[in-house]
Design brief:
Oligomer: single chain
Helix content: over 70%
Radius of gyration: 23 Å
Largest sheet: 2 strands, antiparallel
Shape: elongated
Structural class: mainly alpha
Number of strands: 2
């Protein structure tokens, strides 16, 4: 592997290395997205198969079936509570997406925010905007660095290091965007379907 990298570094001053790395990254991203779509389709099929097995409808069955439907292991008590609403499928999906923000105490059965600051809508809005700002800053920095590397004559190993920083900046940007959406959409969903408010704000141990 080191020999291949060294040979690529020698060709045209190492300028061919960056395009090849980008191609590899694009292929990996494409495969990852395809795998996600396939896994989601497979999960839906497995959910439908489980849903037809009426004789196995115990708590374990319910938890696993909803996991295939929503992508999260929700407590059975929460699933049954949401199933009594007028829009059970939507409620379960939205609560599952927002579940990283809350937790269920195994002893008391009390729903609580994982962090007390999530209980305040104003604080959630600030956090969502902060993560969104982080997304734009990271994405812009990665894009600008990538543009400079493309138009400049920087070559060799130093260019590869800079491209790694471009990839890191892109990853941080995507993470910030995910957190912003989670907090922005998750808080109102939990308040709507589970009645989460500032009273359920005890910090987890």
């Amino acid at each position: 592997m080191d020999g291949i990298v060294n040979r690529l570094m020698d060709l045209h001053g190492g300028q061919l290395l960056v395009p090849l790395v980008l191609c590899v990254l694009l292929v990996l991203i494409f495969k990852g997205l395809s795998g996600m779509n396939q896994s989601r389709g497979s999960a839906r099929r497995e959910f439908l198969e489980l849903f037809q097995e009426i004789e196995k409808k115990d708590d374990l069955w319910l938890s696993v079936a909803v996991r295939h439907h929503s992508g999260a292991y929700l407590p059975v008590s929460i699933i049954r509570r949401l199933s009594k609403l007028d829009q059970p499928a939507r409620a379960i999906m939205e609560v599952a997406d927002a579940w990283p923000l809350i937790d269920l105490d195994d002893v008391t059965g009390e729903l609580r925010w994982r962090k007390p600051k999530y209980a305040d809508p104003a604080t959630r809005r600030l956090l969502s905007r902060a993560f969104l700002t982080g997304y734009f800053v990271s994405a812009l920095a990665a894009a600008m660095l990538g543009y400079i590397l493309v138009v400049s004559q920087i070559g060799g190993r130093i260019a590869f290091v800079y491209w790694l920083w471009v990839a890191i900046g892109g990853t941080i940007a995507l993470w910030c965007l995910h957190r912003s959406k989670l907090i922005h959409d998750g808080g109102p969903a939990l308040e709507r379907w589970l009645g989460m408010g500032q009273s359920s704000s005890r910090e987890e141990p």
